[in-house]
Each structure stands twice: as structure tokens, then as C-alpha cells.
Specification:
The complex is a heterodimer of chains A (149) and B (421). With 149 residues, chain A is an alpha+beta fold. Chain A contains six helices and four strands, in the order ααβββααααβ. Chain A has a single domain, classed as Sufe protein. Chain: A (Alpha-Beta Complex). In chain B, helix 9 links the parallel strand 8 and strand 9. The chains are: A alpha+beta (149), B alpha/beta (421).
């Protein structure tokens, strides 16, 4: 059965209260706005890419605890990764939140594994995915708007 | 009982208080548990629950009465036709329409408004004309007008609202100009609960010869609506919000206007004659009901209106006012809560934000306690923008809700606060 404490794990609540990389990036060379039409939430993801590597990642916007914590952990997780590595992580995160990943593999995702409980709340998967969709768009197409729909 | 009590004329008796414990037994869905807790259903503005009599009417139709209407000469078809037409009479009585020819069955409020936009709007609007709405409309009373404005070159203007969520009536009046062809406004705001002074606003528009459409989706389930008294030209509402089935709604239209409007959709049932060259239209209301309609849903709606009328809208309104007052008091006491929508005249809707907590998180935590509320922008993004919030949490009440359920809501909100503090 879906458990509230499985959804709102302490790590998620902490990152909601004090999100990391929650700032506007002045020297970014990629900027994507993500919109969740279900709730009207918007967030902006900035990347500074150098030689195919994410040198810096940041975000700002309004959102629920899930989307804020997800953006916070996402921006931390992708710093220093190549485009290919970040895209592979996007794919693994997608499998995690849609419940198509085994426990052992989920644990190998480190802090991101805190989102494993969300697959029990299908309507909230979009909240967790919003910043990741913005990231994916930023990697391939700078300066766009993406939607979770 | 004293003799004098018996002698009081019935019409002057106060509304008979509702026996809510009894009423709740009529709603099978309310007996269930959600995540192990009794369901506390406070999302009535999104859709209402259905009493057994409505469920039975729909089931009975499919089990024993199913046939198409206005077509067959066989027994079942004749019976279905009579039942369908009777439901139309019930709606006409419910709204106090002059005639059942003024009652058009639609898919819902949204379709009713689109019907008027695409028939009345398209034939009456020219570049330079305008339509006046308010800043508290649901998207369904904004977007259809934007579409017809794009098609005709007309302009859409919105009258502002105050910080309490009340319409600025003076500003509304100033917007009414020589080129205003239609006013479209909400009776009861789904996001704020504000009850607009429709009769007064209609009079202001009519003084300038401007017809008025009323979005009655949130009004019909909670207030006694009398379209002749309001003097509005169109009034749209949805079956599913008034304890009837989804997929059916009503558009009331003043007969003289409906007569002059072109059909909305073409097809079967809406014609008088068809040749391969041209067709002529059926008289009202069939002109606006192309194709096989939602027969089962219409019968369900008829049963729902019977049910609501039996309880009495005055009694319903009195009970819901008590609930709204109690809920506003309980919820306002929680530190960090700001109620969005504090109009003097309100119905059944309590929208609020909790500092530092997103409405969707409130919704998910309350859901875990068996409480169903709505969280988000409520299809009223301009209202959210007006109040500087991305969304709100909204509890909305029906006559089957109780003060005890509001206590559960208040406790749930304390859990939310603790969790996100």
C-alpha cells in the first residue's frame, strides 16, 4: 500500500526546506523552463556546459516538496557529468519513479533512491520528473520550454 | 404539539433542517474507507457524489428501458422519448424557465458556453465589438470567448475583483459600452466561493441592451436559481455537480434569442427536412440537440433534480452556510493559513494556502487521512495570478458533509503543518 512516509522521506523534506543550487545562474549557457500544467508549477533549470560536461547546474521556481527536492537532488547529481552520463541518469531516474526498477539497482542511485516511494503515487510522478525533463531539454536544446504533459 | 404551531402557513415555515445522517445513507460511496479511514469527501466543487436514486435511474434505463428517442414507433422507444421529455420538463421547473423549449441538454456547462459562443457569438460579433467577463471566471468561461474573439475580431474584457474576491461592480459597469455584445459571468466562483449579485449585474447590462450569460456550474447545486427572476438570457450548469451523472448539462436560453441563433452542430434530430442541397431546422429545443443525446444521463439528471428539490435548496443552503462558517473558523485558526476568497456573500467553497507548503503536498497528506480536497489552480489561473499564488487547497462542501468531517480536515491540516515545518 502507498505509504506517506515512503513518499515524503526525510531527505526529501530536508531538500524541500533547504534546496541546494536554488539560485539564478548568471553565466549559464543553457536555460530551460519546465511547466507542469496539472498544477501550474514552473521551474527554470540553468546549466553551464563546457566541452560536453555539466560544470554547473541550478534551478529556481515554485513547486511542491517533491518537485523542489527533486530539482535540488538532480542539480547536485548531474554536476561534473557528461551529457551522455546525465542522459543515462535521466533514464534510470525515470525507471525509478515509474516503479520499473529493482530494489538493488535503486539503491545504487544513492540519494536519488529517496524517490523510490513515488511510484505508489502515480499522479505525483510528474512532480518528481519536471526538473529532469527540463534537464533533458537543456542538454539537447538550449532555451526552450518543456511541459510534463 | 400546540394547535397554533399547526396553524402556521406552510410557506412561512423555516426550511426543515436536514437529517444528514439519514441523507448520507442515500450515497453508497460515502460508506467506503480510503486508505483504511472513513472517506471525507470535500471535493464537491469538482464533482459531487450520486445518491442511489440517480444510480438506479441510470441502471434501470440500461437494464429495462434502453432505446433511442424520437425515432422508433416501438414500445421502448416511445417510453424512452416520454421519459427524456419529462426530464426536460423537470429542468424547466427547477430553473423556473418560461418553457421547456428553453432547455437544451448539453454535455456540461463547458459545452453550453461554447454553444452560445459559436452560435450567438459568431453571428453577432464584428471587429471592434467586445464581450465582458470578470476576473474570477473558470477557464470554461474564458477560453470559448477567446476562441470566438479570434474568429470574429472582437475583444474580450474582464472586470476586476477586489482582494476579498468580490467583483468591482462600478468597474464592471464602466466596461459596458456601445460595442459590448454580450456579458458572460460566473454566478458562484469555483475558486473563491464568491456569489455574484447576478440580478443587479443583469439589470446593468440590460439597461444597455446587452444580453447576459451566467455560468451556473457552482450555483445550481447550492442556491435556488430562478432564471426569470434573475432575468438572465442564458444559464448553463452541469449534471455531475448537482449529484447527477457526468456527460450531461443544461443550457437555458431565452426563447426569443434561441430562435434567432443558428444551430450549433448538424446531424440527426435537429432538422425539419433535409435534401442533398439544403436543410431546415427543427423547432426548439431539438434544433440544438444534434445526434442521439445522452439519454441515460438525462434521466439520471432528472432523478438528481427530484432528489435535490425534495431536500429543498433553502435547507441545503442553510446547512452548507453553517458548514462553511464552521470550516472557515476552524481552518483560519491554524497559524500560517490564509483564506483566499473572503467575500461577504459566499457559497460552499473554502480556498486557502498554508505558508511554506505547496497545495499538492497538502492534498497528498490529507488524502492519506481519507480526506479528498482539490489542490491546484482550479482551472482558474487568472484568479490565482490575481492573488499571487500558484494554486490553493480547496475544500468544498455539499449537504451530506458534517461538522465532524471538518474537524477531521482541521486535524489533517495540523499533520501537514508538523510534517513540513
Amino acid at each position: 500500500m502507498a505509504s506517506l512516509s515512503g513518499l515524503y522521506q526525510d531527505l526529501i523534506l530536508d531538500h524541500n526546506r533547504a534546496p541546494q543550487n536554488f539560485r539564478r545562474m548568471e553565466d549559464a549557457n543553457r536555460r530551460v523552463e519546465g511547466i507542469n500544467p496539472l498544477c501550474g508549477d514552473r521551474l527554470t533549470v540553468w546549466l553551464r556546459m563546457e566541452d560536453g560536461v555539466i560544470k554547473d547546474a541550478a534551478f529556481q521556481g515554485s513547486g511542491c516538496a517533491i518537485s523542489k527536492a527533486s530539482a535540488s537532488l538532480m542539480t547536485s547529481a548531474v554536476k561534473g557529468k557528461t551529457r551522455q552520463e546525465a542522459e543515462a541518469l535521466f533514464e534510470r531516474f525515470r525507471r525509478l519513479v515509474t516503479g520499473s526498477m529493482e530494489q538493488a539497482e535503486a539503491e545504487s542511485l544513492g540519494k536519488l533512491a529517496a524517490f523510490s516511494g513515488i511510484s505508489e503515487f502515480p499522479i505525483r510522478v510528474k512532480c518528481a520528473s519536471l526538473s529532469w525533463h527540463a534537464l533533458k531539454a537543456a542538454l539537447s536544446e538550449p532555451d526552450t520550454v518543456v511541459s510534463t504533459e | 404539539m400546540s394547535f397554533s404551531a399547526v396553524a402556521v402557513p406552510l410557506a412561512r415555515c423555516p426550511a426543515v433542517p436536514l437529517d444528514v445522517a439519514r441523507i448520507r445513507e442515500d450515497f453508497p460511496i460515502l460508506r467506503q474507507r480510503i486508505r483504511g479511514k472513513p472517506l471525507v469527501y470535500l471535493d464537491n466543487a469538482a464533482t459531487s457524489q450520486k445518491p442511489q436514486v440517480v444510480i438506479d435511474a441510470v441502471t434501470r434505463f440500461y437494464a429495462a428501458e434502453n432505446a433511442n428517442i424520437h425515432r422508433g414507433v416501438h414500445y421502448l422507444s416511445e417510453r424512452a422519448t416520454v421519459a427524456y421529455d419529462e426530464a426536460r420538463e423537470k429542468v424547466a421547473r427547477f430553473l423556473n424557465a418560461h418553457s421547456s423549449r428553453e432547455i437544451i441538454f448539453t454535455r456540461g456547462t463547458t459545452e453550453g458556453i461554447n454553444l452560445v459562443a459559436q452560435t450567438y457569438g459568431r453571428t453577432h460579433l464584428k471587429p471592434g465589438d467586445d464581450i465582458v467577463i470578470t476576473a474570477m471566471e473558470h477557464h470554461s468561461n474564458i477560453v470559448p470567448w477567446q476562441l470566438v474573439c479570434e474568429q470574429t475580431g472582437a475583444t474580450l474584457r474582464a472586470a476586476p475583483i477586489s482582494d476579498q474576491g468580490e467583483l468591482d461592480v462600478d468597474a464592471f459597469e464602466r466596461l459596458l459600452g456601445d460595442r459590448t455584445r454580450l456579458v458572460a459571468l460566473v454566478h458562484v466562483s469555483n475558486a473563491l466561493g464568491t456569489i455574484n449579485p447576478i440580478k443587479r449585474l443583469v439589470a446593468l447590462a440590460h439597461a444597455r441592451g446587452i444580453p447576459v450569460l451566467v455560468d451556473g456550474a457552482q450555483a445550481a447545486p447550492h442556491l435556488q436559481v430562478d432564471v426569470q427572476n434573475l432575468d438572465c438570457d442564458f444559464f448553463a450548469f452541469s449534471g455531475h455537480k448537482i449529484f447527477g451523472p457526468t456527460g450531461v448539462g443544461v443550457l437555458y436560453g431565452r426563447e426569443a434569442l434561441l430562435e434567432r441563433m443558428p444551430p450549433y452542430q448538424g446531424g440527426g434530430d435537429m432538422i425539419a427536412t433535409v435534401t442533398l442541397q439544403r436543410s431546415t431546422w427543427a423547432p426548439l429545443p431539438a434544433k440544438f440537440e444534434a445526434g442521439t443525446p445522452m439519454i441515460a444521463q438525462v434521466l439520471g439528471l432528472g432523478a438528481a433534480l427530484d432528489y435535490v428539490s425534495k431536500l429543498g435548496l433553502d435547507a441545503i443552503a442553510a446547512w452548507e452556510q453553517d458548514l462553511l462558517g464552521y470550516a472557515t473558523e476552524r481552518v483560519s485558526q491554524i497559524k500560517g493559513i490564509r483564506v483566499i476568497g473572503t467575500a461577504r456573500d459566499k457559497a460552499s467553497v473554502l480556498g486557502f494556502v498554508l505558508e511554506g507548503v505547496h497545495p499538492h503536498d497538502i492534498g497528498t497528506v490529507l488524502d492519506d487521512a481519507g480526506i479528498a480536497i482539490r489542490a491546484g489552480h482550479h482551472c482558474a489561473q487568472p484568479v490565482m495570478e490575481r492573488f499571487g499564488v500558484s494554486g490553493t487547497a480547496r475544500a468544498s462542501f455539499a449537504f451530506y458533509n458534517t461538522r465532524a468531517e471538518i474537524d477531521v480536515l482541521a486535524d489533517g491540516l495540523m499533520t501537514v503543518k508538523k510534517m513540513f515545518a
